[in-house]
Specification:
Strand 6 and strand 7 form a beta hairpin. This protein is mainly beta. Strands 1, 2, 5, 6, 7, 8 and 9 form a seven-stranded antiparallel sheet that branches. A two-stranded antiparallel ribbon has the order 3-4. 12% of the residues lie in helices and 38% in strands. It is extended. The protein contains two helices and nine strands.
Length: 171
């Protein structure tokens, strides 16, 4: 008779192996934009919790480490700058960076927060998993850096502040 440990190892070895996914196969969707946006890179897919140290009386050998609030960095999207005609993201940022000294009128742009997602694609283009955010707003837009000594693509960067990421397994 097999021990429980040997049996579970044998069961695991009969499952299909997991292969690492590539970092270049993904798509980004942002609520309210006409199509999926294509980006060179996406960053900021992480979360962390603050560690709160608590010193309890009578415990002299150290402190108790408690979980504090969770936080998420901004989502950072980078893509080739294509100029007019492809400026939905820049316009969204401009709505949020309006001059605060100007009075708000009925013609002022609405400050709209948007939900969105980053979807990891598999080798055949199938959706494997998704990270979704809610209530995102564009906190930073950066245009291309120009350098006459290089022949690189002009890149624009958009940072989206949000209220947290939710992971969803799709396959």
């Amino acid at each position: 008779p097999d021990s429980a440990g040997a049996r579970s190892l044998r069961d695991m070895s009969q499952k299909e192996p997991h292969h690492p996914l590539t970092t270049f196969s993904f798509k980004v969707s942002i609520q309210g934009f006409s199509a999926e946006a294509y980006f060179q890179s996406v960053g900021g897919i992480k979360s962390e919790s603050e560690v709160v140290e608590y010193r309890e009386g009578g415990i002299n050998h150290g402190s108790i480490r408690l979980a504090g609030p969770s936080k998420w960095p901004n989502i950072v999207l980078k893509r080739g700058f294509a100029g007019p005609g492809c400026d939905e993201l820049r316009k969204w940022r401009e709505d949020w960076s309006a001059d605060p000294a100007k009075p708000v009128t009925k013609n002022s742009p609405a400050l709209v927060r948007k939900s969105g997602s980053i979807t990891q694609l598999g080798p055949g283009g199938e959706e494997i998993c998704r990270w979704s955010w809610k209530d995102g707003w564009p906190c930073k837009w950066e245009g291309p850096n120009f350098d006459a000594t290089k022949s690189e693509l002009a890149i624009e960067t958009l940072e989206i502040s949000h209220h947290g990421l939710v992971y969803e397994k799709l396959k």
